[in-house]
Amino acid sequence: MKNIFYQIFHSQKFVAGFSILMIILLILFIYPLIFPGDPLQMIGLSSFSKPGIYVSVYDAIDSEPSTMKLPDADVKRLMKKLSNEDRLAMKEWLVATGTPEDVIDILDTDGLLKLWKDSYDPSLKPEGMTLAKRNYYKRLNASLEKAFDYSRIIIATKDEETGELNEEKTVSSNDYININDVANVVYLPLGTDNFGADVAKKLVSAAKTSIMIGLIAGSIATFIGLTFGLLAGYVGGIVDDFIMFITNLFTVIPGFILLILISYGIDQDKRGAAVVALVIGVTSWTWTARSVRSQVLSLRNRDHVNLSKLSGHGLARIILTDILPYIASYVVMALILQISTAILAEAQLSMLGLGPKTTERPTLGLMMNWAMLYSAHTHGYWWAYFPVLLFIALISFSLNLMNTGLDQVFNPTLRD
Amino acid sequence: MSSNKTHHGPVCLSGRGVTKVYGFGSRKTVAVDHVDFDFYEGEIVSIVGESGSGKTTLAKMLLGLTSVTEGQIYYQGKPRDIRTRKKKKEYWTNVQAIFQDPFSSFNVFSKIDTVLLDCINMRGGRHLPRDKKIELMTEACSFVNLKFEELTNKYPFELSGGQMQRLMIARIFLLKPKVLLADEPTSMIDACSRATILDMLMNLRKETGMTIIFITHDIGLAYYVSDSVYIMEQGKIVEYGSADEVILNPKTYNTKRLISDVPKIYEVWDLSTV
Ligand SMILES: Nc1ncnc2c1ncn2[C@@H]1O[C@H](COP(=O)(O)OP(=O)(O)OP(=O)(O)O)[C@@H](O)[C@H]1O
Ligand SMILES: [Mg+2]
User: I need a labelling partner for A193 at 20 to 30 A (CA). Which of A22, A238, A378, A405 fits?
Assistant: First the structure.
């Protein structure tokens, strides 16, 4: 027994898979401790905010600034202002108005601006340029001019009756505030989703639920498959015929179709995570039953089973002590695979809109479903779906890696 | 069956037209083909045959571990009835076995104590006090030159092949069955342990007077241990009779060939000195 554990934990593949899974689990447990709160809370009133740290502007203005003069502050401001498209558009104008193309370097902010200042003239009408395009250049120029305007910004309150503005505060380009002095700062490492909920928090909670669904569904499938496989293989005869008939029935109807039909038949209100896990478990036990049965068939004529019979042991005892321990390693492997397939099945079901009801708890599949419904992928809101995909892939990859590792330990012919 | 066997005791196990067919259709194998036999109480019977001749299959049918396709097995003169679990258990208190391969005969997850305790329970000793059980197990182990103190809490696979086969005999010592089917009990172990094992089996028989059905492909061995010999070939019994009859005056070609394979057949073997 000790030897087997030694071998398992010296199988590189198993250890690699196990480590990935442990790291994921660690994240799932530690993250909520650092950032507590309801994962479904809609904090954003707009959807799909980019990942990052959000500082309350209102509170920031209220904080006491320190004055700093940083040499590259202006350049940085300009760089933030000029998007790549703007730069390309500027180049287009410059080329159209006769600047040779090879002197323009759109990545050199300073040089580009100098060229722009020298050659931009709103009254020029380069050939083939639409009015809309020219207006765009006017706006761009105005915003650039504003960036060079280092005057202070005045914060004022408005008198309700007279409509008069009372200056409260001025903000200069050299004012800096300490982020720690700002009362409201929100960390959104993965931004927000279509509901305006924190994706990171939701992801952690969803991964937990999905793993739970995987565990429940995998255990149910393994339990049913194991029981049927043991009975069919060991008892044989009519029992075998009957069980194999049911198994074939389930096999002939593709499991996923069955899953869809059953899920469709259950009201969305009644479809909690546990129900979905149950449905997945009940439809995916067939291959476990088949493979356990064939293992048992080869075991039941072994001499140690015969000796056990000769020692007066009954059916239950023989199955539990003479058959089960011999296939235990196999069953563990089957369980791991079942968990992994159940997690994927939940994701697939939810993406079809047949997953657990959405108001209760997020699951990885539901997050994918919503991201797809809101076309997050076409709008480039990668944070709403990519981390979810990564989690699904990593969980199932780590489980499969563990499985391969175990296979190598228990199946000496596969050892390298 | 045979007329010149008046000196035998009562019939213990016998069979008429016993047949075993494995598989069906094109994959049909007739492993045992309409065999008749009478094994008498207290006898040592050898069943000799080449590999694949159906010896193990016959033994499994005699043990009730596999079904009989056709024919009838009689136990103590009456058709054998092992249809219920209770009757099976009763049959197995009287008919026991030692298998060919000691390495696959034991459950690798059960301790040696369990193996021996099962035998005590089988003999109705379930409610004996713990000391008494240990005493019985120690006695059984010392009969086969093993030390129970060293074996307790060990697993069978921690023993050598010869030691495992001795443990098997210790089982039989505790069970004291009326019939023992020994299916090539020495074919997987070295020559030296082989003699020891045979010696122990013979001692055990002297003590309990049990019938031994000794299955072997070694006709020389059969000659020295058995009272009567059955020769099997391709599932059929082709020759039978007392050991002297069959081996010193073989009738079929195959038996002659089996005998010619054994060079030492006419020299005297003394099992106790090997
Ligand atoms: N469970 C089984 N299913 C199908 N065929 C079997 C089975 N067991 C044995 N056979 C076949 O029955 C025949 C007799 O086998 P058996 O094991 O009885 O031979 P044996 O005389 O004991 O040989 P050996 O000396 O090698 O042990 C063989 O042809 C074998 O292939
Ligand atoms: Mg055999």
Answer: A22
